Amino acid sequence: MEDEIDLTQYVKTVFKHWKLVLGIALAAVIVTGVVSFAVPPVYEATVLIQPTGGEANVQRMALLAKSRGMAQFMQKELAERNPGSTDIPFEVKTGDIKAGDIYISCTVSNPDAQKAADLANAWAGAFTKYTTDVSLKSMLPPEELQGQIEAAYTFYQEAQASYESFQRTSQAREIARQIADANLLYQALQLQESLKQGPAVSGDAANLAFLLLKLKTYGASIPEGSQFTPGSAALVSLADVDTMVRELEGRSGIHGKTATQVLMEINFLTAKADQESQRAAELLGSRDTSWNAYLAALKAAESSNIIRMAMPAPVRVVSEATPPQDPVPSKRLMNIAIALVLGLIVGVIAAFVAEYFVRKRPQPKDAVASEAKQSADK
To answer: Are 266 and 252 in contact (CB under 8 A)?
Structure first.
């Protein structure tokens, strides 16, 4: 069948160029062997670090360990200690926090066992320093805390001064006095209108109302044991009430107004008193708030100082790196085996390429026939 593939030709081609295939494979094996044995043994040292605190700090430290900032900080530390070690690769691994493997490890590979251990421990020291600096920077510096304290105290002093100034200029007491006198005037005007109506009000009721109004006006008190019986007091006259009305008008500053108008004036004074009271409450509240903010700033500064003095390191070294006794197991045999397989593959490909060029090259019989044909044509 035409679609069948004849592998015989391929096998013949490979056997035909077996020297080329074996030569390439042998060359690959020799080069790989030389390189593998020429490379010095490598030692690995590992340091183990455990974050302190809760899960939030563990996750944060795990991110910091692989962060770019930590890598730059470590390069800076190495540049200060040993300028020639800035290109050392550090293999950092973190455990599965959710599974309870709370650790951070750093492995360093180096031909020198002691240097590998020193570099791993240097990374641990730099990481401890870096995480401590980051944790401290997350807190407000003492200078800023002191600035907050001073600003809070200044605000309190301003609020206190505003409150005291308002208290000195406030008309709350004067308005309260005006309201009290206006109320008395309102009652006196009502009594005056009642007396003008005549029989609608009994004499005893008028006498009692006038007596109480008089007591309120002059601030007198009723003596103990006093008794009031109907008809025992002289009837109050309209002139007496008019006299009291004029006196109350002078005291309240409200003249020539009816009881209804005086009541409207009382409502106006009451609204004004409410405004004064509300303003006083606002200033007092602002003063108290600023004082509480000042106390909070003092407490925050004190707490920050205590934390700074007693704050443990965010991480701790569980196991320091020690110089390894044995190098990392080499993979020379595996490398040679891989080189052999790859060499054979490349050799087979080279055999087919060589066969292709052989077939394209003109054969001797073909050359003689081509020359005879050219002579006949001439």
So the answer is: no
pLDDT in tens, 216-251: 666 655 455 444 445 444 566 677 778 888 888 888
pTM of the prediction? 0.42
Q: Among candidates 86, 73, 90, 78, which has minimal Cα distance to 134?
A: 73
Nearest to 316 by CA among 76, 168, 159, 131: 131
CA distance 185 to 116: 101
> pLDDT for 312-357, tens place per residue?
567 778 778 888 877 766 777 787 788 888 888 887 888 778 777 7
Give me the residue label for tokens 């791993």. Answer: 120
Residue 107, beta-bridge partner list = 46, 91
Of the candidates 241, 182, 239, the residue with the CA atom closest to the CA atom of residue 209: 241
Edge to edge, the sheet with strand 90-94 lists 90-94, 104-110, 43-51, 315-319
**CA gap 128, 64 in Å, rounded:** 11
Structure tokens at 309: 């003095």
Q: Which residue has the tokens 């002691």?
A: 114
